[in-house]
Amino acid sequence: MVDPRIPPRPQDPGASLIKMRSLRSAPFAIKNWTVILSVAGVLGACGSTPEPYATADAVAAGMNDAGVDCEGFATTEAPQEVPREHESLVEEQGVCAVGGETITIRTFEDEEARDDWVAVGGKVVGSLAVGPNWVVAGRSEALIEDIAEALDAVPPDEASSL
């Protein structure tokens, strides 16, 4: 017979102990998931691909948005670097000053035009940051690396991976 004055025993005497441990470890578990998700977010950002831009001015605006001040942007006439069916490889070109150094931004109709320009014209302009349909060129390798990081660009030898 069951005595009504004695509360019933749980089926599993350790069940309430497990619940208490779970509650005590909840903040630890939440912290662990926060760290895992934060690391995953950082790693995901590292694998970002650069954005294509329609114009050199749009690349300059992208630089400004990313915290690289492209001051005094002006569109310039693109020279005929390499003949490609009697057309310029460069669709649009512009210049601006970043940290007192003049950089040149060039946009291209497509990746093929960009790759052709990089193969020839890119050898004489200094350091390059390469995007899907654009390049940023300057004399300072450190500055171009900063711009490349801000725009998720790649060095010329990795352009085919875009």
Q: How does this structure look, described?
A:
There is one protein chain. The chain has 162 residues and is α+β, with helices and mostly antiparallel strands. It folds into two domains: 11-47; 56-161, Protein Transport Mog1p, Chain A (3-Layer(aba) Sandwich). Helices cover 39% and strands 20% of the residues. A five-stranded antiparallel sheet has the order 1-2-3-5-4. A hairpin with a 2-residue loop joins strand 2 (90-98) and strand 3 (101-108). It starts with 14 loop residues before the first helix and ends in an 11-residue tail after the last helix. Residues 15-45 have low confidence and may be disordered.
What is the second-level CATH architecture of the largest domain? 3-Layer(aba) Sandwich
Pattern of helices and strands: HHEEEHEEH
- The name of the CATH topology of the largest domain is Protein Transport Mog1p, Chain A
Mean pLDDT: 78
Structural class by secondary-structure content: alpha+beta
What is the radius of gyration?
28 Å
Envelope shape: elongated
The poorly predicted ranges are: 15-45
The proportion of residues in beta strands is: 15-25%
Helix fraction, binned, reads 25-40%
Largest sheet: 5 strands, antiparallel
Our measurement of the CA-to-CA distance between the termini, rounded to an integer number of angstroms, reads 78 Å
- The helix count comes to 4
Number of strands: 5
Strand order of the largest sheet: 1-2-3-5-4
